[in-house]
Amino acid sequence: MVDRILDKLGIELNDMQQDSMQAILHGNKDVVVLSPTGSGKTLAYLLPLTQLIDATDDEAQAVVVTPGRELALQSANVLKNMGSGLRAMACYGGRATMDEHRVMKQVRPQIVFGTPGRLNDHLDKGNLSPYHIKYLIIDEFDKCLEMGFQDEMSRLIKSLPGLRRHFLLSATEAEEIPHFVHMGRVEKIDYRVDEDQVPDRVHIYKVDSPVKDKLESLSLLLRSLGDQSTIVFLNYRDSVERTNKYLVEQGFSTSFFHGGLEQKEREASLYRFSNGSANILVSTDLASRGLDIPDIDNIIHYHMPESEDGYIHRVGRTARWEAQGKAFFLLGPEEHIPEYVDAEIENYEMPVADLLPAPAKPKMATIYIGKGKKDKISKGDILGFLCKKGGLQSAEIGKIDVNDRYAYAAISRTKLRSVLNNVKGEKIKGVKTIVEEVR
C-alpha cells in the first residue's frame, strides 16, 4: 500500500521519513521525531499508521493531537489525499460539538485529529470511544505539552486506557516530556540542523527604521521585494490588524491571520495567501507552526521573536527543503537583534523610495462559491463551471479547495470581473449559488 500511496502523491521519501517509518512500523518503542518545519513530518507518521490501523475495525484506533485547528484540518486532509481507504475526521473548537458528533456517527473515523480541549469534550460526552485507541500522536509536541495545555493533555491521556505507543513530532524539542505522557522506551530520530545556526540557504538582513513606528519602513521594504511571497510576523493580534489595515491602504494585496479570527475567516485568509491571491501574510506566530504553505520567499520580523524556539519556527517558514530564502529584522531606533541569533547578518540597502515601484498586484484572485461537498460538488464540477459558464481556459484557473458547504477557487486576476459577470445567475450542477470575490 505504501508504494501505491507514494505513486499517487508523486513523491519519494526523504531520510527522516524513511527512518521514522522504520521505527514506527517495525519497532516497539515510543518514537520522538525532531525535524525542521517543512520536512514532511505529517507523512512520516501517517504512512506507517496506514499499516498499523485495522481497516476492518470501525472504531477509532489512533488520535492525533495538534495545538491548533489548522494543523488538525491540514493533517486530516493529507490522509484523505493519500487514498488509503482509512476514515478520518478533524475535531476543533469554533463549531458546535453536537454538529461534530453527527458527522462522527456518519463517518466512523478510524483516525481522529483534534485539539486537546475538543477531543476531551468528545471523550467526556461518550461521542468517541477510547477503548480501541492504541496509538497517540502528538504533533508539535513541544507546543502541546507547554504549561497552558498540560491540564487538557493530562486529562486526555488518562482517558485512553488502551494506549500501546506514543509518537511525538516537532521541529524543536520540549524542555522535558511530562510524566503524565507515560512514555516508555524511546527511539529518538533527530534531523534538526544545529539550532544555534541558521541554515546557509537563509540569508539574514537587518533593516533600520529611523522612527519607532516602523510601518513606513515596512512598506518600503515590501515594495523593494516586489511580488515575492512574504510573511510579516508580529506578536499581538491588534498589531496584526493595524499593520494589515495600513498595508491595504498603501495598495498591497494582503491577508492577515491570528487566533481571534473565526474559522471561516482563517481558512479564507490562508487560502488567499497559499494560492497566490495575496502575496503578503500579516500574522502572529500562529503561522510559524504546522501550516503547509510552500514557496515562501521572505519572512519579516516586525516584532522581535519572543524566544529562540519562536525564531527557529519563524525562519523555518522560508527556505524549505533545498530552496533559498530571506529573513529580515526590521529594527526601530532602540531595538536590537536578539542575542540567540548567531548568524551572519547583512545590512539591507533599501532603494530610494522614489525609485521603488508601486505595490505589486498578484496574478491570481480568489472567488467564493457557495456550494460544496454536501451539495455533491467536486473540484471537477467547479473547473467545468468556470470554463463553460465563466469563459476561462483551464490555464487561467489555479488551486481549487472544496469544503463541506462552500468552495474557493483561484483564477486569473485579469479575468475576475468578466467571470463574475458571466456566472451571475448561472447554476452549477443545476443549482444556483453565490459566486463572489474573497477580499
Automatic annotation (TrEMBL):
CDD domains: DEADc (cd00268), SF2_C_DEAD (cd18787). Keywords: ATP-binding, Helicase, Hydrolase, Nucleotide-binding. One of its GO terms (cellular component) is cytosol. Gene3D superfamilies: 3.30.70.330, P-loop containing nucleotide triphosphate hydrolases. It comes from the Bacteria. Transmembrane segments: none annotated. Belongs to the DEAD box helicase family. This is DEAD/DEAH box helicase. One of its GO terms (molecular function) is ATP binding. It holds the Pfam family DEAD.
